[in-house]
Amino acid sequence: MAKLLLVCGLVVLGFALTCYAATTYTVGGNSGWDISTDLPTWASDKKFVVGDVLWFQYSSSNSVNQVTKENYEGCNTTNVVKSYTGGNTTVTLTRPGDWYFVSGNKLYCLGGMKLQVPVQGNQLSYAPAGAPQSSTGSDEGPSSLQNPSSKSNIPTSAGLNIHGGSDHVLVLSMLGTLAAMLWM
């Protein structure tokens, strides 16, 4: 009986090691969604996965447009997938693949204020529990986040996500081997 409990405990530990909280990223870090921000460099060291959240902080005179690849490359700000205004916008990354965002001001976009986000998928992805939903129109988001000057580049947890990457397979196989050795 004790061996069975040990094996069950190791299985639960293995799954716990492969789980992590979805991450909320403040787009652009401390500078936010701004013409002065080097957005490609900001995104280059991040690993975005399904369930993560992008938090755009910007002045109320600006906007964020989600666009297609073609509109991203040409800075087309009139034919958009979705437009966001209000200064604080959260977008939950709900599917794998590239996501494209541009400033609503075409001149800003041409000046580099645009972002390509490569999102990796998972076979076992769950939507983040309690993650903020994408804002629309004048939705200002949570009241504690209304001041764009309080920007932070520290990712925050927003829910649960399960990865099926090769590093987790190694952990699970090692725990399985340990459990088999203890069973004998």
Explain this structure to me?
The two termini are 13 Å apart. About 23% of the residues have low confidence. The chain is 28% helix and 26% strand. It is α+β, with helices and mostly antiparallel strands and 184 residues long. The longest helix is centred in the last third of the chain and has 18 residues. The protein has a 5-stranded mixed β-sheet with strand order 2-8-7-4-5. It has a 4-stranded mixed β-sheet with strand order 6-3-1-9. The radius of gyration is 20 Å and the shape is elongated. Helix 1 packs antiparallel against helix 5.
Q: Would you kindly provide a brief summary of this structure?
A:
By secondary structure, this protein is of the alpha+beta class. The chain contains five helices and nine strands, in the order αβαβββαβββαββα.
Mean pLDDT over the full residue set: 74
Radius of gyration: 20 Å
Strand ordering within the main sheet: 2-8-7-4-5
Principal-axes shape call: elongated
Catalogue the unreliable spans: 129-171
Number of strands: 9
Order of helices and strands: HEHEEEHEEEHEEH
Strand content: 25-35%
Instruction: Figure out the total of helices.
Output: 5
The helix content is: 25-40%
Feature tags:
single chain, about 180 residues, alpha+beta, 9 strands
Can you lay out the helices and strands and say which pair or pack?
Layout: H1 2-17, E1 19-26, H2 39-44, E2 48-49, E3 53-57, E4 64-67, H3 69-74, E5 82-84, E6 88-92, E7 97-103, H4 106-110, E8 114-120, E9 156-162, H5 166-183
Parallel strand pairs: 1-3, 2-8
Antiparallel strand pairs: 1-9, 3-6, 4-5, 4-7, 7-8
Helix pairs in contact: 1-5
